[in-house]
Fold NCS1 family nucleobase:cation symporter-1.
Amino acid sequence: MTDIAPTGSPSTLSAPDGRIELGPDAFPADSPFANEDLRPVPLAERRWTTYNFAALWIGMAVNVPSWTLAAGLVALGMDWKQSVLTIALGNVIVLLPMLLTGHAGPKYGIPFPVLARASFGVRGANLPALLRGLVACAWFGIQTWIGGQSIYFLAGKVFGAGSWWSDAGKVGGYPWTQWLCFLLFFAVEIVIILRGMDAVRKLENWAAPLMLAGAVALLVWIANKAGGFGPLLDQPSQLGWGGDFWKVFFPALMGMIGFWSTLSLNIPDFTRFGAGQKAQVWGQSLGLPTTMAVFALLSVLVTSGAQAVYGEPIWDPSQLAARMDSTVGVLFALFILLLATLSTNIAANLVSPAYDLSNLAPKLISFRTGALIACFVGVIIFPWKLIENPDIYIFTWLGTVGGLLGTVAGILIADYWLIRRTHLDLPGLYTAGGRYWYGSGWNWRALVAFAVGAVLAVGGSYSNVDADGNKAGPFPADGIVPFLKPLADYGWAVGLGASLVLYVVLMGGRKERAEA
């Protein structure tokens, strides 16, 4: 059992390693801003190890959208070396804010929306929480559609061409059997998330090694059929390493950062269960950038083998696995793909909105209720349209989302590390009229920093125009705000940097009081 002792505050207790929990009478049970899911995790329940965090990231990173990231970059003109480099660098960069925001989890046992109360205010934290939650709902819909699609493709292989399965009538442009698979996968996700965070941890623990083994098995199978990795590895870049490459590289890099910028905000939702800072730092550092780089390389190698065997690059692993001759192989591939999508979707896209929605009305919405709401919102958004075009997927969707969430990350990092130096008044995060109440529960300084950072980050968002004058996206070709267009390709970095600096300036006069 962890030894704990009183801190400077009679309402909190501290472990020798600096982790803090509320004392037995400190938790404001009658507070409208608290419930059992938002309360700090007791020290005795913070037991996630380095392996748990590494397995979490392997489980989240090994999924179909991650697999197809390299494909999107190759489709934009990069060769395999440039695409893997871009993905690896983006994940190394996003790891830093991930570790910085994750620090508050093991130390205080609080989730992301509660941490955001320190900077945005007890009520104002709902703004970044709902923004993050809405993005997660959209991602949930994307991943659920992909999971159902995998079942549909591989089940069609089992039943055979011309069967009732593959020739089913269409509803809304898709066979009704595909909609059935979508609903089946949706139901499985609900069953797991309703069992709580411990079920998420157990799923990631045993799923991670199986998914890596499945990806390697797919590589061995296609390499055996191809007699090598085919011509893709030798395919030259259409962009070269000159100006044309850098015009694509920087916005693509921001897109890669945007891919996990969501988790750079709500990573405290997981690190709050950490046994200590070393567990979350080493677990994330070993799990995120290495897995994403290796997985991108695997996707390129497997696709090059598909090019050699079938005469076309098949980037969707479910469609590739459906071409296997062995029914056992197809079923194994189906299991691995479903496991990959399931582990990613639950951890990355349901945990966050469950807490975010609970923070909106703690006495009415529990973690499980929030998860159910997120599930249904994710379905009615129809977000699968976002991944039909690499331009829209990487630049419009990931770039815009990354810019907005980078702005929030800048404020959180500035507040926690620069203003408060990692010292928080834990009871005040749950109390009206306390240190983080500001003006009626809102900190106008954070709102101003967010607004300015968001405008600078995404105000210049634009859509590319092809040779025929067709736009590949919803934004004007000259940008929403034309003079901000040069900043649009660096949205995440611009949003994070601008909001961080402005927030520190605006909060400068309150620094001493915040640390008192």
User: Anything to note?
Assistant: The CA atoms of residues 156 and 162 lie 9 Å apart. The mean pLDDT is 81. The first helix runs from residue 50 to 61.
